[in-house]
Amino acid sequence: MEMLASQSHLAMKPSKGKLPFSVMVVIVCALAFALILYAEDVKSLARSSMLKLKSCPAQYLAPAHTAKTPTVDEEEIDERDYDLEECDMVKGRWVFNRSRKPLYTEESCPYIDRQVSCHTNGRPDDDYRYWEWQPDNCVLPRFDAAVALERLKGKRLMFVGDSLQRGQWMSMVCSLYSHIPPDQKSMKRGHSLSIFQAKEYNATIEFYWAPFLVESNSDIKVIGDPKKRILRLDSISKHAQHWIGVDILVFNTYVWWMSGLKIKSLWGSFANAEEGYEELDAPIAYRIGLRTWANWVDSTVNPNKTRVFFTTMSPTHMRSSDWGNDKGIRCYNETRPVLKRGYWGSGSDGRLMSVVGSIVKRMKVPVSVINITQLSEHRIDGHTSVYTETHGKVLNDEQKADPLHNADCIHWCLPGVPDTWNQILYSYL
Q1: Angstrom distance (rounded) from CA 105 to CA 2
Q2: How many angstroms separate the CA atoms of 383 and 329, rounded?
Q3: What is the pTM of this model?
Q4: Is 408 annotated in the active site?
Q5: Could you tell me which residues come within 8 angstroms of residue 166 by beta carbon, excluding any fewer than 6 positions away?
Q6: What is the DSSP string of 347-363?
Q7: 104 vs 177, 205, 306, CA distance in Å?
Q8: Short-list 361, 358, 356, 386, CA closest to 372
Q9: What is the DSSP string of 177-244?
Q10: Among this protein's residues, is 322 annotated catalytic?
């Protein structure tokens, strides 16, 4: 302000003599008043929808490495601040909100597989249900089942992929379940295709099992030994015939590629597998397989009728040393997320992440990428751990006492992390 006063004094200086002091005061005050009006005009513009400028509630901007559990204030959330194009899902943090109840429970939804029913399987804590992902530059809209059902009216929504994608499907079904009258819903579970129907809305939420998206010898009867798995990287029509006519397709494939072994890749019939396959590094095989998928989408999908999504890789948490717990055993006994900003462990392969990005951006049909990797990286507490089942039976006490061999740090408890994935999908719908 002193500089402005000085400059205005010089600019207004008469050829002879000096301005009286009272005149100088009037000029300075006038300039100050003009600046205040200008600032108010700028604030008004910033609040207008034309510029789409976003502001974050103050509680979301706490220091990144705070030891205090971040919490959320319900009254300060304004979902009108959400803009899909401007909202960066990667940058943010998890906040704890005990006051917000999950959309469903294991008791309220009968369709949660025992594998991911952590509370039923004996998990003593439940904090993992109450963490919310908060992006830095926007507020993620909360899942509204009534709105979601209206958006899905007359449509087929299909999740395609592996057991992690099946978890996201179950999360979506359970999030909608209690909002549909008992006589207006049905479920048909199948080995490859499962269909939940909301009859009143003439809508279906479906899951199709295709762990690699492309064809493999582990599609019908799951082969547990990755050394015996063989993929037909250039063949997808056997699966894709079930995807034709679907209104919303949500694809995923990742964890089955990450055995640490080379991928046995076949060109031709499985009958010639013994002499016809070659072994490829996972990123190379993954790229070929995704190109096959992308070619099918570009040549078959009508973007005016079908929306296509691709869910990025769901991280695993096998090494507790990644997050500084050198005495830990995998994800066992973890009850809080990693709160360090931008945490990235060894359970996510950036090479495969880049493959998805490079292929999707070259496709003719627009594909919306649901980036769940970074936000899920923090959730070391959300896995089923020893509160799961194996070979169709819930782990017994002896097995639970051996987390090194039995803790499942791949799949997620429900309710839990996959609910956030669907919250992002809902924002697109």
Answers
A1: 63
A2: 13
A3: 0.81
A4: yes
A5: 113, 159, 207, 209
A6: TS-HHHHHHHHHHHTT-
A7: 8, 17, 29
A8: 356
A9: HTTS-GGGEEEE--SSEEEEEEGGGTEEEEEEE-TTSSEETTSSS----GGG-EEETT--HHHHTTTT
A10: no
**Could you tell me which residues come within 8 angstroms of residue 427 by beta carbon, excluding any fewer than 6 positions away?**
82, 84, 87, 140, 141
Dist. CA 241–CA 358, nearest whole Å:
26
Q: Which of 239, 317, 383, 411 is catalytic?
A: 411
Q: Three-class SS string for 253-288?
A: CCHHHCCCCCEEEECCCHHHHHHHEEEECHHHHHHH
* Res 88: pLDDT: 84
| Position 75 confidence tier, pLDDT thresholds 50, 70, 90 | very low
- Helix 21-47 / helix 2-11 crossing angle, nearest 10 deg: 120
183 is catalytic: no
Token pair for 194? 């499962």
**Cα–Cα distance, 355 to 289 (Å, whole number):** 11
User: Is the four-CA dihedral 291, 293, 298, 304 of positive or negative sign?
Assistant: negative
Query: For residues 293 and 280, is the Cβ–Cβ distance under 8 A?
Result: no
Neighbour count for residue 56 (Cβ, 10 Å) = 16
- CB burial of 396-408 (b: ≥16 within 10 Å; e: otherwise) equals eeebbeebeebbb
Two tokens, residue 233: 């990287």
Q: Which of 163, 194, 265, 320 is catalytic?
A: 163
Lowest-confidence region among 38-42, 199-203, 211-215, 304-308: 38-42
Indicate the range of 18-32, 113-127, 134-148, 256-270 predicted with least confidence. Answer: 18-32
Contact 410, 349 (CB under 8 A): no
Q: Which of 162, 219, 349, 408 is catalytic?
A: 408
The gap from C-alpha 178 to its chain's centroid, in whole angstroms, comes to 23
Read off the pLDDT of residues 354-398 as tens digits, 9 standing for 90 and up: 999 999 999 999 999 999 999 999 999 999 999 999 989 999 999
Instruction: Kindly state the tokens that stand for 133.
Output: 């992902």
Amino acid identity at 240: A
Measured over the CA atoms of residue 30, residue 35, residue 36 and residue 42, the dihedral's sign is positive
Instruction: Tell me how far apart the alpha carbons of residues 414 and 394 are, in angstroms, rounded to a whole number.
Output: 16
For CA atoms 108, 407, 92, 352, give the dihedral sign. Answer: negative
The tokens 């396959």 sit on which residue? 277
Are the beta carbons of 121 and 387 closer than 8 angstroms? yes
